[in-house]
Amino acid sequence: MKQVRFLTLIIISTVAITGRAQSIEDTFLFADKLYEASEYSNAVEVYKRILFFDEQSIYGPKVYRKIADCLYETGAFTEAANYYELAYFVEQKDRIRNDIILQKASCYLLSKDYSSTQEELFALSSDLTEEQLRISKFYAAMLYFALEDFDQSETLFKEITLDTLAVHNLFIRNDKVSRISPRKAKILSIIFPGLGQFYAGDIKNGLNSMLLTSGLFYFGVRSAINISFLDAAVSVMPWFQRYYTGGFNKAEAIATAKKQQKRYAVFTDLLTEVQ
User: Fold this and answer.
1) Cα gap 141→150, rounded to integer Å
2) Is the distance from CB of 189 to CB of 195 less than 8 angstroms?
3) HSE toward the beta carbon, residue 150, CA cutoff 13 A
4) Between 20 and 30 A from 64 (CA), which of 24, 74, 104, 133?
5) Where do the domains of the chain lie?
6) What stretch of H or E contains 187?
7) Tell me, what's the pLDDT at 92?
8) Which residue, 144, 138, 79, is CA-closest to 107?
């Protein structure tokens, strides 16, 4: 029902736009109402329709930014960045241009396009407002954290928060996270099955790996002694090799996941501290 209503409104707005030029303003107000009601996808369609009928390009400066904001809210960050780019080139005021660049940088940061994020932050003009400067430092701090340049990240986070000691303590915690080595976990499990999982803090999987491989090794040796080496190699060795290889590969994966999880927890606490 909601979709039918929206389609009807689109048809009415199209007829109105084609019928009289001043109705573009009414359609623009209608699109704004959709945006305010958080109907971002519908708002985008109406804004795009305005662009289509706006032959004199009067509404471009307003509409590009509006479309970008809607797309940002829906998580379509790559497409949003493209419309922020269009909004930037039709905007004349430096202050608003800086706002657009910051939004674009946010799109790239959320898309994990760190090189483009860096380019946008470098493109900011020097006459930033106090709030724009704070936001740019915030984005740069997150960027450097993602790039694992933790010294630079800590410096910037300290510049935008009052409790610098709390920030420092969080980066000390992050240093401990950095010491978790997936490669070390793998090597430990190669030396003795289960050790890598124990090192990563996964006791359950460590015990499973140790018991499985130890049990298979025992049955393999017993078969070799009581029956024949060939029989042991054919019946037990493939299973032993499978669980042994899987064990040390899993130890590496567990350590990697544990490291990412702990680092994300530090990052979340940093964002809370800044807020």
Assistant:
1) 9
2) yes
3) 17
4) 133
5) 2-149, 182-274
6) helix 182-191
7) 86
8) 79
pLDDT per position as a tens digit, 227-254:
655 555 545 566 556 666 777 788 888 8
Question: Tens of pLDDT along 70-129?
Answer: 999 999 999 999 999 999 998 888 899 999 999 999 999 999 999 999 999 999 988 899
- Contact between 164 and 158 (Cβ < 8 Å): yes
Q: How far apart are CA 197 and CA 257, in angstroms?
A: 12
Q: Is the pLDDT of residue 1 over 60?
A: no
3-state SS string for 40-80: HHHHHHHHHHHHHHCCCCCCHHHHHHHHHHHHHHHCCHHHH
Q: Using an 8 Å Cβ cutoff, are 103 and 122 in contact?
A: no
Helix (H) or strand (E) holding 87: helix 77-90
Q: Cα dist. 23→12, 50, 155 in Å?
A: 11, 10, 52
CA distance 126 to 50: 34
How many residues in the chain? 275
